[in-house]
Specification:
heterodimer; A: mainly alpha; 2 helices; 0% strand; B: alpha/beta; Amidase signature (AS) enzymes; 11-stranded mixed β-sheet; 37% helix; globular
Amino acid sequence: MTLAEYKKRLADLGLAVPEADLKASVAQAQRLAEQARALKDDRDDG
Amino acid sequence: MDDVLDSPLRRQQELIATGQVSACEIASALVARIERRDGAIRSVVHLSPDAVAEASRWDNVLPDDRPPLAGLCFGVKDIIDVHGQPTRCGSHAHLHAPGQAGHIDAVSVAALRQAGMVPLAKLATYEYALTGPAFDQPNPPACNPWDTSAITGGSSSGSAAAVSAGLMRVALGTDTGGSIRAPAAYCGVVGLKPTTGLVSASGCFPLSQSLDVIGPLAACAEDAAVILEALAPASRAAADIGQELTGLRIAYARDWFVDDPAADPHLVQAMDDTAALLSMLGARIELVTLPPYQRLEDAATVILQAEALQNHLVGLRNRFDAYGKDARRNLLTGAVLDEQDVVHARDIAHRFRQEVDVLLAQHSALLIPTTLGTALKFTAFADGAVWTAMRTMPFNMSGHPAISLPCGFGANGLPLGCQLVGGFGQEALLCQLAYQLEQSSNHSARPAIGAEPVSLDYP
């Protein structure tokens, strides 16, 4: 997930987030997205 | 009076019932102790001005007419409502009605009042029970009574610190991913996360409704059992305390932590010592293998973050800047999740619940660590939140009850905690086991508390 995609997701939720907060949280958000994807892959693998 | 304040609740109850001390005297002495000690640990965010008067009222009631815990005091994590006291959730975002007192007790608080108990103080919490420690909350974070330059763990930070420092025997906390058990371990007290749904969460600000549980942090296993029984009488949690345990099979999931680089060698030794102690008490210890830990923590994190964002969406839209930096940035991350992610996580939760059920059909309890080391120093958080290694979150997903109790000390002299997990509704057995371990070990020492306010290096 890129910074732009993350920003759009937040905007879709009605959240206009300052750049400093976006940049400071994007790495954690990417980690969370990876965790979620790994859970899905795990399930798909049976 | 110090001996009385440091006695288990049942002993205090006896002393009051036999007229050796009054509820008023105990409450007054606790207030004096808070005034003397809390400057060093900052666990109390609101001291009830009515507590002594409320306790005194029970002294005027005939002993036979008093409920079981009449006049005894407890503390409340400041995300749980107490009639007449403000709820701030450790956040400037919750201060939109400054000084406004709660109009109604949370169901859990009402249950303890029904048993005669008196809410003495609201206690520090990580912001909205989410993340910490942080210095942009209305109050600075509570400090660990064993070392005031160390964190308490969270999010029931004030509850753990207050009980550890002897400011009260028991306090209510909440546990969404370990928020009762981890601070209990770091502060050397007992933390009991009951079966999900056993204690109503009504009147508590939610973090993640699927995972949130209310329960006691207590100075000893017996006190935790007494409070759980008052919260959920059907649990009969304190009924068998002190009775001998026989024929127990304890599952020990040693490979769930022993090879984790985060595991403190003292913790590994303390866990093996606890297993040996249980064996000496007559239990049969059997090594078991659980599903890989990280995947379970990831699934629980997905559920938590998705639900937490939903709970705070309106707040973030309207009062974004009023949230602390770490809290709001943590909440935002939930935006990357979609419905399918949560469905997958819940599926993993469901399967794990079944696996634990199978294990606990063959064993009385499961032994694991609570955290993998002792409390970190505040300085470790200078650059923001740090994820500390623990083994708690999967049981918020599965809903099984778990009790954390002291099991030793790290090289730095700070407490370590182990955890016993039981089958649904098996809190009485967990408390009984924890009591037996306490009676057979010397890990429940109390820290020496200084009277001077602590000066932290950070920030």
